[in-house]
Amino acid sequence: MNRKHRTHRMAVSAPLYTFTLFWLIVLLNTECLRGSQVCDRGEVLGRNYLLYDLNPAEGFNLRRDVFIRIAVFVKKLQQHGDWVLVLPPWGPLPHWKSKDIGDQLKLPWKNFFDTESLMKYVSIMELSDLLSEKKKTLLINQLFYLQHFPDGWENGKWEEKYKFENCIHKPPYRETKDGAMKGWFWGYDKIQVRNVSCVSFQGHVNKLLPILLEHSKISGNVIMIDRGEIPLHDDYGGVDYWKVRRSMRYSFKLYFLASQFRLEFLQSDDESDLTSLPSDWRDETAEVAAKGGDYVCGHLRRQDFLYGRSSDIPSLKLAAKKLEKTAMLLNLEKIFVASDGTKQEMEKLKSYLSPKYQLYLYQPSFEIRRDILDGGVAIVEQIICSRARHFIGSFESTFSFRIQEEREILGFPSNSTFNRFCADDNDSCEQPAKWKKIM
Ligand SMILES: C[C@@H]1O[C@H](OP(=O)(O)OP(=O)(O)OC[C@H]2O[C@@H](n3cnc4c(=O)[nH]c(N)nc43)[C@H](O)[C@@H]2O)[C@@H](O)[C@H](O)[C@@H]1O
To answer: Signal peptide: which range, if any (predicted)?
Structure first.
């Protein structure tokens, strides 16, 4: 190569060198962003995943409440780095008892909720999607197994605290022969955990923030909290609580089935009942005033409440009389009942109603039940109740609470929403607290 040529090549190389250096710096920074490293300001950068689970005995609607706590928490974590909330699959749940519709486990959130809508509050992903991304095993770097302090109150004072200590009860994780830690993990075999720590915890979920930030730096970017029901809401009934709650729209199919039933049996639809909402929850305004369909709804919690809360649960006869009286006062004749009671109990309830009043229950075909499962049937009932002219719930049932919230979002008058059945010997029992939405 002659001299002229070489000079020319060098002239080209100088900008090429600067160009390469520039992109190298950009790439390195991007790597810092991607690789979950700790960068200058001590923040965790890169994608971190938070998984959580609850005490297996908890039901669907308490689980929805815990989701709100965790979603608000992850939103705060996001101020310190890129965090994604991994949605724990549904099932099996103790209250999902139908045996004729197959296994009710490993169910994704999209079966019940509009996950695009959830995403508008905080980054979420289904566990199954994370598992298919990981191809092989998903390694949880650190798992915090929360437990209550044996004595939460010291000198009569309640204070927020946490402490890493010995496990009070043996956590449901075990070391396998090859040294890996395994657990139930929603029935997935492909998940392992590197380290499990028991943490006695008392306080708001916010208190977990330093623990999570510290450990994601040291241990890695996949962290899990088990017994996620132990931390309290940071701001129960506050703006963020309601944002997450409003983002929890149900799946299209469940709204569709509820609309079909309302139209066919209750002559009710969103337009005439003034129960329409904008398609995006962020466009909702406080100025909504629902009227509701021409029916009364009662949620009659039975099963374990019959013995666990016997002093607060009405007999079927009293429940029928209460529903009938309410319908009469509102000049209505249709009564819809959502219940986990048996067929015989519902027949009994019906027998206590005067012929003037018609009782409606949601009893879908086998094909629909097999499709939407017990969880879907319950949600359809909740949607129907949330659009009734008047609602009466069961004492301290989270199933009733979720209906009340839905009615708050739709803008029903409080006295048509925050009601509950009293027990037979207590006609004037205390009515539910009015948790008004804040926007
Ligand atoms: C005492 C506690 O009560 C808590 O229940 P509670 O707040 O009512 O409400 P959940 O936590 O949802 O649990 C009750 C479950 O029972 C079914 N269920 C209750 N009411 C109805 C209904 O009207 N229709 C249909 N289709 N299903 C109903 C449904 O699967 C629901 O998720 C439980 O989470 C705890 O495990 C514990 O049992």
So the answer is: none
